[in-house]
Structures are given as C-alpha cells and as structure tokens.
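User: Here's a chain of 151 residues. Predict its fold as tokens.
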Amino acid sequence: ERHSVDIGEILRSSSNLISHQKRGSNIAFEVEVPDELPQVIADGGQIQQAVIALATNAIDAMPDGGTLTFRASAKANRVAIEIQDTGIGIPTENLSKIYEPFFTTKEVGKGTGLGLAVCYGIITDHGGRVAVRSNVGKGTTFTIYLPLSRH
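Assistant: Prediction complete.
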C-alpha cells in the first residue's frame, strides 16, 4: 500500500531497530536528514525493508567496527537515501554481481545472497534506482533514488 511517506522517519526508525539488534560491535550510528525533506509516495514498510537490508550488510562489512550513516537529501525531482559504511568495501570484480540472487561473499550459513536482490526489486518496483560506490578498505555507499511523485 503506497501513500505519502516520511523518509526521515523511516531512516530514524531503521537506525533504532538495527542498533537494538546488537549486531556487530563498535558501530556508531548516524542519521542525517534535512528538516525540509519532501515526502515520497511509497510503501513505507517495503522501503524500510530495503534500508534495513543495506544497513545489515553494511554492519557485516565492518567486522572491526566503524560508522554506519543513514542520510537523506532532496535532489531535483527525487529523494536520495544513502546507507554509508566505513567497512571493508566491495572488490571491483564483485560489483557487477552484487544484485544477483544468491550471490554472497559471506561464509556458508551467514547470508543467503538475497538481501540486495530483494532491495533492488523493491526500489525498481517503486520507480527508483539503486547505485553503489565502494573503495576497498575505506567503505561503501549505497544510494537509493526514489521519485517524489509517480505520474
């Protein structure tokens, strides 16, 4: 069910949920949302599911701790949601495969390889797109772009 959604509230509640899961150690959580962020028409539960999938991966990519940042901004006719970590990064040779179902670099039993595939499906179904920037040893930023309104 899609209606007007406050992305800032989704990011704040996602950060709270994940920080209370006690996954990872020495993780600092930051949420950066401007006061005047426009709302988007979306299924809030699905967007939160996508954000949590990205954030969970980000925590797993920081085995020695780090900073997980949830950030939102308005750009032209869309809202950008960034999930940024200071983790191990994604090697270039894996970037083309990360959205494939069942692709994972995690140990057996630690991941199904479905999180990013599901995230990608949710976002594209909303008329949005997902982009990734990563530097090995420095971290990764996933950016979700959602249209402000569907025409």
